[in-house]
Amino acid sequence: MTNTDRKHHEFIIVGSGISGISSALALLRGGFKDFLMLESAEGAGGVWRENIYPGVACDIPSVVYQFAEDQNPNWSKLYAGGEEIMKYLNQTRTKHGLDEQTRYGVKVSKAEYDDRNAQWNISTHDGEEYSCRYLIKATGAFNSPLIPKIPHLEDFEGTLFHTARWPKDLDLSGKRVAVLGTGSSAVQLIPIVADAAAQLTVYQRTPIWLLPKFDFNIASPFRWAFKNIPGSYALSRKLSYSGIAYFLQVVLSASGKHPRVHRLLESAGRWNIRRQLKDPALIEKFTPNYNLGCKRPSFSNNYYKAFSKSNVSLVSDGVERLTKDGILKRGADKADPFDVIILATGFNILGDASTSLPAFPIAGRQGLNLREYWHNSDGFKAFRGATVSGFPNLFLNLGIPYAGGTSWFETADLISEHIVKCVQTAQSRSSAEVEVKPEAVDAYMADMDKLLDQSVHHTGSCATSSSYYYDKDGKTPLYSGEAPKVSWTETYASPEQSYVFRSMESSAQ
């Protein structure tokens, strides 16, 4: 196929979740209108479109869990639920006319860089062909559900599904239900399932650190003030942002520098168990034997209470296998029967079998394969989670490693602004290519490794945490050790220090 046969755009964005929308909004603000979004599903929203399980909500305050340039002063709760977040995302897309620049139901099968023409050639599963100067991979990291390797999983004849594939209109009333996993999704849905099901059994491999959740409805006078009193909403955002940034420092990236506060938060987690439960055996089973932050913590005021109900039980012995009608736990002679089994087992982010990183085959300069590069060659290396050496004109939004930010929205906005700055610099130089320098990537990775020497994963006890933060080499390339906005200032001011800009002639050589 010749290049003239392909549908060409200056930018193609793959994915229409938080990072895809953020990328599109930044392009519009930068004056770039020739872009197309390709979305494999029949609607936008990404992780918030896919996750519709009962109780789904963000664990970041709503006032900062939004796009910086499209703020919503009308959140109903401090921590918004999934439906409200989806409504916000859809309203933002409609406001900026993004549906007109999106193709739904289009799944990308591969993207290959054309050195001679300094462009990306993109193929879809339906046989369509596209090309673009700049490719933005905005497919996120939480779209590869982790299915546990339990023997005879396929033998179960009842209803079995992952939380990210929750069946619409599912009725659990009167059902015998099992939930495998006790991560963030399980914490949100278990109290609701406990009220609906006739019997609920939760299979716990590793307990989770849970802190009290200070959630509340935002009263109408506050929403009125946010809209009508100058500075009030900005102040609430600043306070929330500062609190989250400090929390992440203490719990994750620099816990070694804040040992007393870190211990205090762990004490709050243990108190949160004791205030909801009186059974010493249950309290012991729910108390983690690893440090807070080794795996993703969460917040809840009613999770533990659910296990005081007569129809709810906890199994921490492990699962031997599934049978056609239930689950055989380790050491048992007989399987426990269930009608529904819910896999609350999280996502495969850094594993070899992950379909997230990348979500489709990407071949860069001279055929360099991004999956091979990340998983088998150089490891998860990137510059600020946004660009990879050897892949000109490719940008990763919500990529890894070490993409800074206090929430996915902030991370996406930071990377989106970075993309626009790079492209504007390329255009000012009449350059056809922009590619991050390998030495810039190596320097950034080294800086992050040094900064994260004081992270809980280096200073704490994490061996028993079973955390998805780790890759196969024992590194934790998912979060940055830098203060987010400060860390990007130098790159914004002079992208020439980190990137090489090539003309069409030099790129073809």
UniProtKB/TrEMBL annotation:
Name the species this protein comes from: Zhongshania arctica
Q: What class of enzyme is it?
A: oxidoreductase
PANTHER family given for it?
FAD_NAD(P)-BINDING DOMAIN-CONTAINING PROTEIN-RELATED, L-ORNITHINE N(5)-MONOOXYGENASE-RELATED
InterPro entries named in the record: FAD-bind_Monooxygenase_sf, FAD/NAD-bd_sf
Record protein name field: Flavin-containing monooxygenase
State whether keyword Cytoplasm applies. Answer: no
Q: Which SUPFAM superfamilies match?
A: FAD/NAD(P)-binding domain (SSF51905)
Phylogenetic lineage: Bacteria, Pseudomonadati, Pseudomonadota, Gammaproteobacteria, Cellvibrionales
Q: Which residues cross the membrane?
A: 12-32
Is the Manganese keyword given for this protein? no
- Which Enzyme Commission number(s) are on file for it? 1.14.13.-
Q: Which UniProt keywords apply?
A: Membrane, Monooxygenase, Oxidoreductase, Transmembrane, Transmembrane helix
The record's GO molecular-function terms, alphabetically, read: monooxygenase activity
